[in-house]
Amino acid sequence: MALNLYKYFAVEAQGAEEGPPPTKRAKTREGEGGSDESDDEEEEQLATQTAESISTDASTTSSMPGPSRQATTFLKRWLKGRHHWLENVDGQGMLCKLCRKYDKHSYGHDTWNKTPCTRMRLQSITTHELSAAHKDSVRLELALSQSQSIVSTLNPPVPKKGIYQAFKCLYFLTKQRIPHTTNYEPLLDLLESLGLTVKSDICIAKNATYTSDKTIQEMVNILSEVLETNTINQTRESNHIALMFDETTDCTVTEQLALHGRFIDKATGNLKSCYLKIIDVLKPEVGAASDSEQDICISVNASTITKRVKEFIAEADLDPTKIRGIGTDGAATMIGCRNGVVRA
């Protein structure tokens, strides 16, 4: 365009000094004597051609690609390497996940934390990345991820499938009244030799084999709680309940009370008998000053047994008005006419 203008003004300057270039028509008229009217027409024609050339160049120049314009919307390529903290909320702006998580405010403003950044520029993102608040958030997140990695390394998760199969093996032993502490691991070894990877699934580390006596006892307690909860729920729903209990001792000669129940199943109408709980009759009293005082205060008599049974009824949330009968042996402690448990 500038070159055409230069040519135009050069032609104008030359025409001012030498006059317009002769044309065939001008030459003819020069031969015929010429006139001022023909000169005006030639100048008008030249101006028209020059104006058309300028407009053509201007349109060509405007259609040429210029410098890239800045984006007015969020571009997905900005997420490259920033997925862990950059977030775009459609129609609102950009937010920083880490600054929001750790409540950091860059440059003392809520932008990027509570208020989205509406200036859709790559420079806005890089400026926030360089802020001290964002760097603090990144350091906190890195420290958290490292600590979680250490915890997962020291305590790796156990596959749910392996835990489920291990509980089934332990439930089988207890259900068949087979000593579980001495036969649990040999049973797992037998299954391993048959191609079932139960033991290898739960033995995830040298310090996490899940086959120790302590672990086995904890698993038995969990099984007991689950079965007890299901049974008590069924008993609680019945409108007719009977309790049966008797004294017993374990291998350590600890006095215990075996408690069973009978109830009419509300869903089927059938009579069911079930085990409810083993109660430690001589369990420590709350507020006992010493072991000697406890030995004096607690003994296996009618009042102690009655107290433990009432405590169980309250803990299980059973309605005493639904209890239709009590079954026990013929000991005087249980059915004595004066101080027996049944009478109490």
N-end to C-end Cα span: 116 Å
Which residues sit in consecutive blocks of at least 5 with pLDDT less than 50? Answer: 5-13, 23-34, 56-68, 289-297
Q: How many helices in DSSP terms?
A: 13
Cα-based radius of gyration, to the nearest Å: 48 Å
Specify the structural class: alpha+beta
Mean pLDDT: 75
Gross geometry: elongated
Reading the helices and strands in chain order gives HHHEEHHHHHHHEEEHHEH
Count every beta strand, where a strand is a DSSP E run of 2 or more residues.
Answer: 6
Q: Report strand %.
A: 5-15%
In which range does the helix fraction lie?
A: 40-55%
* Strand order, sheet with most strands: 5-4-3-6
Sheet with the most strands?
4 strands, mixed
What's the short version?
With 344 residues, the protein is of the alpha+beta class. The protein has helices spanning 2-18, 24-31, 36-63, 97-101, 122-129, 132-154, 160-175, 180-193, 198-202, 213-237, 291-297, 302-315, 332-335; strands at residues 86-89, 93-96, 241-249, 255-264, 271-280, 323-327.
Keywords:
344 residues; alpha+beta; 4-stranded mixed sheet; 13 helices; 6 strands
Description:
There is one protein chain. With 344 residues, the chain is of the alpha+beta class. Among the domains are: 85-122, no CATH class; 166-211, no CATH class; 238-335, no CATH class. 51% of the residues lie in helices and 12% in strands.
